[in-house]
Amino acid sequence: MLHLRMITPADRTDAVVRIVERTVGTTHLVVLPGAARIPPGDIVMCDVAREAGDELLHELRAIGIAEDGSIAVENIDLSLSARADRAEEEAPGEAADAVLWEQLSEATHEESTLTITYSAFMIIATMIAACGVVLDNAVLIVGAMAVGPEFGPLAGVCTGLVRRAPRQAARSLAALLVGFAAAMVATTCFTLVMDALGLFHEGMLDDPRPNTSFIWQPDPFSFVVALLAGSAGVLSLTSAKSGALVGVAISVTTVPAAANAAVALGYGDFAQMWGSAAQLLVNLSGIMLAGVLTLLGQKLLWRTQRGHWRRTSPRA
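The chain above was modelled as a monomer; its predicted structure follows.
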């Protein structure tokens, strides 16, 4: 279940109440006239089944509540209510399959904004991966994958394309490209510093590295894994399964490929640099392609389910 708290202009409160009452899957409607001060207006609260949430939010935005008032949405972890149980049973589809597009856009906007914190995570993750590729240490590679924040902008690009929001897609793509560029430049400098300190040397890059050689040697499986990871990552975002997203983060070699390219550039090994760059491009392309297709599939599936429910449900 979701809990909605709205500040509504007084002249639109009745319209909001009517929308809530006619939306199947809503319950626990509360109206507090004149309770809001900034902005002034009434407070309307209700609970709604997740599978009915997107439709309700769309109708509320259509009458300008987001512009002239506010809409706050919270997940309800526990609701002991027979009415809430009935509301979830009446709502079409399953909660796990529902996509809250507004929530998805907000989440990907936050994760795909080019900030100092985002850039710092990218740089640190790439430097950790650089240590991993030089030492042929799989643990460091996995750690770098988990630290890297690149899936946020990737998901932002996918969401922007599916929702036909070019600004969101462009902002996310810019964060992705600038983040990787900054991380690779910083890691190249890091490599030279480590070499000067005697902690890295060129021979370590040329030594056999059975645990990490796949990073600069892309093959068809690289694209297959990227496709699977992209689909799983988007599903984890739309269903709020954060544990699954961690699994996605450690399954693709975006950050390690960028790190190996940076280390190879520092030592002038252009063969490894281009191989790593190709691996990076393959992974990014596969994730974005799978993400877009997954979101389109979810959109079509949900539209089909709702259409079937409207045709067969006596309450539709």
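The first strand starts at residue 2 and ends at 8.
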